[in-house]
Amino acid sequence: MKNSIYVFLLGLVFCLSCQTQEFEQGRELYLFYCSSCHLESGQGLRSLYPPLAESDYLAKYNETVPCIIRKGMEGKIIVNGKDYNAPMAAMPKITAFEITNIMNFINKSWGNDLPYVKFVDVKNKLEECK
Ligand code: HEC
Known about the structure:
Elements: H1 2-33, H2 35-38, H3 56-60, H4 65-71, E1 77-79, E2 82-84, H5 96-107, H6 119-127
Antiparallel strand pairs: 1-2
The chain binds heme C.
């Protein structure tokens, strides 16, 4: 009985630290792949690159973000009331696991408070991106 309490506590501590690690990995991947355009602060760059910080587009279309990252995007979009229309390049080599961690970093950074995304959901979504 006593042992099972220890096992439970150990599991809890492990799980908390694994989530922290995933968030850290997401941050590093973001800095590597995304910050050149969306900036370290998530603010984007003038009328060229849209913000991810408190982006209404990000909140509204969160489930499409795996496809945006994997396949890129182009065409006019409106983010927080401003028009953007420059292409974002596809990143075909980025894995579902990496995308999950990047999304969980973005969803909880710079004032964003969007739901946690699960690896399985990202993986399934990636299978149906056009
Ligand atoms: C070369 C510059 C560039 C890089 C690198 C880049 N993006 Fe983008 N991103 C853009 C542009 C430009 C748009 C707007 C596309 C349009 O107008 O259709 C965009 C749009 C978006 C959007 C939807 C609009 C919004 O602001 O909410 C998301 C989400 C996004 N990018 C996430 C990412 C993530 C995550 C990465 C890294 C994995 C990344 N981008 C890397 C240029 C870039």
